[in-house]
Amino acid sequence: MNDRRHSPRMRTLRSGKILFNNKRSVVNCTVRNLSAEGACLQVESPVGIPSRFDLSIEGEQTSRPALMVWQSDHRVGVVFASQRSDERRDGYADEDRNSAPVRRGGDLVRNELLGLRAALDDVKVGVVLLDAELRAQFINRAFRKMWRLPDAKADSKPAFVALMYHGRDTRAYEIPEAELDAYVAERVTQVKAGDSGPRDIRLANGEVLRFQCTPLPSGGRVLTYTFVTDIVRYSDELEVLRAALDNVEQGIILLDSELHAQFMNRAIRRMSGISDEEAESRPHVSQLVTNARWRQVYGIPADELDAFSSRRIAQIKEGDPTPADLRHGDGRTIRSHCTVLPAGGRMLTYTDITDLVRHGEELQRLATTGTLTGLYNRGYFLARAEAEWGRFQRYSRPLGLLVVDIDRFKSINDQFGHDVGDRAIAHVGEILREGRRSSDVVARLGGDEFAVLLPETDLAQALLVADRLCREVGERPLIVDGRVVSVTLSIGAAEAKLSMAGVAVLMKAADQCLYDAKTAGRNRVIAAKADFCGEYDVAAE
Fold first, then answer.
1. DSSP label at residue 4
2. What whole-number distance in Å separates Cα of residue 81 and Cα of residue 76?
3. Nearest partner of 67 among 26, 108, 15, judged by Cα
């Protein structure tokens, strides 16, 4: 068993003093990695410490002459001269130590190598220096700890293949026993070839080491072993997350702080027609929007695309979380949502809500239209009429109204039955719907009564519309089971006036004209006179 007290590398930290300027200047330090050849000194700062000085070590009666061979922010690597007379033989007087360089090239190389070994013994990366025969000339402390390598074996200059089998003997590898010989052979081949490609080694305890081989001009190799457990674990977790995101139906784009796409899952690639190669190129969000335009992904008129693209890019840059519904050219509706990430990036999510929108539209249709005619119902008509009335009051634009009733509807029901009566209502509703403009609002108010709201239409134009409806109904008789069912209409027409108190008065005016049309013999149109303001006269067709 090794006795650490007699090991050439003393593990204990000792206090020390750096003496220079004829020992008038003193810098406190902590002595680390002390050996007969050199040491690593921990200092508050190496600034002002000369290259040559005396080192006083706690527990030693005499100081050691030291040469600085390397330094970092808080550490200094030194080598020791075996005798003070050595310095004099090299041409130094005691008073010249602070500035004189080492004159003999061989000693300088030897001293720097000793300092380098002391430095490598103080790092957390495992380091092995191999000669051209791939025998270990130096194995640092970190490697010995990683692989539970005894000092006696490490200092015996073992061959690299022996180090590999030591890992097998200690069951360090997370590799099946049957595969270990092949694994060792592969690693030895890599080192012999000087292959500098990094390899990750998974250990049985769950840790991961990143191994790398660097060829030396002398034919030797530098092997480094770095713990990358957290990095690999995060990488593994990221791969699991990527795989999970790739299998969700929602489209996802992850942008960095510069708005370049770091990840685009399968769903968004499918939605937008983006190839795997394009996604891997990490395009900017503006490029994604532009490419979508070229592919005619958006169901937006060409003259609106520029404004839409600029608005969409601005929303993402601002991190606007307001959901945006995007109509695609294939009829789908995609809801997009932007979330600002902690590092300044963005997560864009895209959800296909086509069925939801269609369901909502269907519910809206059912809530606002009748199943028999497909026309708007009374509630929706009155809401639209109020909106158009407000527009009429703000801008003084003309607004016409027709109230329509089927003549002698009760007689149709009595003579042919209620089923034929329903057919008559549907027949009239179809004619009213076919002749409307996109801005017109056609509704069934109830029973056999209908209404047509005509924005941007004065009374004279409304009368032309009413006359056409009466004529078309008369020219398209309803035929049921070979029987001709005569259907005619009575229509009351009115125009909005600023003197009217509201849309209810406009409705009342048209209703009164409808009543007058029926009284006058039916199958006709009656319009309110131009001076109507609540009380009115009737003008015959």
1. G
2. 16
3. 108
CA 502 to chain centre: 52
Distance, in Å, from the CA atom of 56 to the CA atom of 31, rounded to the nearest integer, reads: 10
- Comparing CA positions, the residue from 13, 64, 16 lying closest to residue 36 is 64
Q: Which CATH number fits domain 246-356: 1.20.120.450, 3.40.50.1110, 3.30.70.1350, 3.30.450.20?
A: 3.30.450.20
DSSP structure string for 47-67: TT--SEEEEEETT-SS-EEEE
Question: What are the residue ranges of CATH 3.30.70.270 in the chain?
Answer: 369-539
Q: How does pLDDT run across 369-412, given as a tens digit for each residue? A: 778 888 989 988 999 999 999 999 999 899 999 999 999 999 98
Q: What are phi and psi of 342, to 5 degrees?
A: -55, -35
With helix as H, strand as E and coil as C, how does 310-376 read? HHHHHHHHHCCCCCEEEEECCCCEEEEEEEECCCCCEEEEEEECHHHHHHHHHHHHHHHECCCCCCE
Pick the CATH number of 369-539 from 3.90.870.10, 3.30.70.270, 2.60.40.10, 3.40.190.170: 3.30.70.270
481: left (phi over 0), alpha (psi -120 to 50) or beta: left
Provide the 10 A C-beta neighbour count for residue 349: 18
Joined together, the tokens standing for residue 304 give 């609106």
Order of strands, sheet of 449-455, starting from the edge strand that comes earlier in the sequence = 441-446, 449-455, 399-406, 489-495, 525-528, 538-539
Place of tokens 């990366």: 125
Query: Which two tokens mark 67?
Result: 């040469």
With beta carbons less than 8 A apart as the criterion, state whether 302 and 308 touch: no
pTM here is 0.43
**Which among 28, 29, 50, 49 is positioned nearest to 41, based on CA atoms?**
29
How far apart CA 475 and CA 484 sit, in angstroms, is: 12
Q: What share of the chain is helix, strand, coil (3-state, %, to 5)?
A: 40, 25, 35
Q: What is the mean pLDDT of the chain?
A: 82
CATH architecture of the domain formed by 4-120? Beta Barrel (2.40)
Positions of the chain with pLDDT under 70: 1-11, 82-116, 118-119, 235-238, 293-296, 360-366, 530-541
The two three-digit tokens of residue 155, written as one number: 């200092």
- Strands 489-495 and 525-528 come out as parallel
Query: pLDDT tens, 60-106?
Result: 999 999 988 777 778 888 888 754 434 433 433 343 444 344 444 44
3-state SS string over 464-482? HHHHHHHHHHHHCCEEECC
Here the tokens at position 522 are 């039916």
DSSP string, 388-424: HHHHHHHH---EEEEEEEETTHHHHHHHH-HHHHHHH
